[in-house]
Amino acid sequence: MIGWFVTGTDTGVGKTHVSTALARRARHLGARVFAFKPVETGCTGLGSDQRALVEAAGSWQRGEQCALYSFAQPVAPKVAAESEGVTLDLDRICSAVHSGSGTADFTIVEGAGGWRVPLTETQDIASLARALALPVLVVARAGLGTINHSLLTIEAAERDGCRVGALVLSVLPSDSEVLSQSNAVEIGRRWPGRIVLLQSDPAVLDSLCSTWNTTSVRSLPATE
Fold this sequence. Notes:
Elements: E1 3-8, H1 15-28, E2 33-36, E3 39-41, H2 48-56, E4 69-71, H3 77-83, H4 90-101, E5 106-114, H5 125-132, E6 136-141, H6 146-159, E7 164-170, H7 177-190, E8 194-198
Helix pairs in contact: 1-2, 6-7
C-alpha cells in the first residue's frame, strides 16, 4: 500500500487541507487516489472533511469507502462514539482501507485530531496508524508554537514504532513567511526528515505524491 497516514499536532491545524491538496496533486500526476477519513465528529451523515477527501480523490468512492463513522458531538472519537452507544472497530476501519487501496495507486488516510486522541478504551490514533503500517505525515501550524508541537508529535510517533516520512507546515495567509521559514529550519536542526512548507502553491507536495516505495522517504532530508 503506497501513501500516507496523515496526523496532526492538534485539531484544526490543517490536516484536511493538506490531505485534499495531496490527493489533488497525486491525481494531477496520474495516480488513482483513495482518500479516506474513517472517523469524524461534530457532524451528521458524511462529514465535511470526509466529503472533501472523497471529492479530492475524484468522487469515485462509495459506501464504506467514503467513511465509516460520523458522530454529532464535536469531541474526541471515543467520547462521541460512546455517547451514541457505538464502539469503534479498528479491524473494520483497516478492512475498508485495504478495500479502497486495492483499487488505487495512492492512499491517504486522515486521522482525527492528534496522535494521542482516543478511539476506544485501549486504542488511539497511534494504534490505527500502526495497524495500517503506512508512513506517517505530520501536519502542523507554521507559526508560533510549532517547533515544540511538531517535534513532540514526531518523537511520539517514532517511539511508537511508526515511520515518520514528512512534516508539512500549513502556512496561513496571516502567518509571517520569515517566521514560518525560521520554524522549519529550527525543526530541521533537530529532526532529519523531510519538511515541506505549504503556502499558496500545492505543487510543493508533488515530492510526497510519487508512487515510489515510501519506506525510503525517511531518508530524504531536504526542506522545501
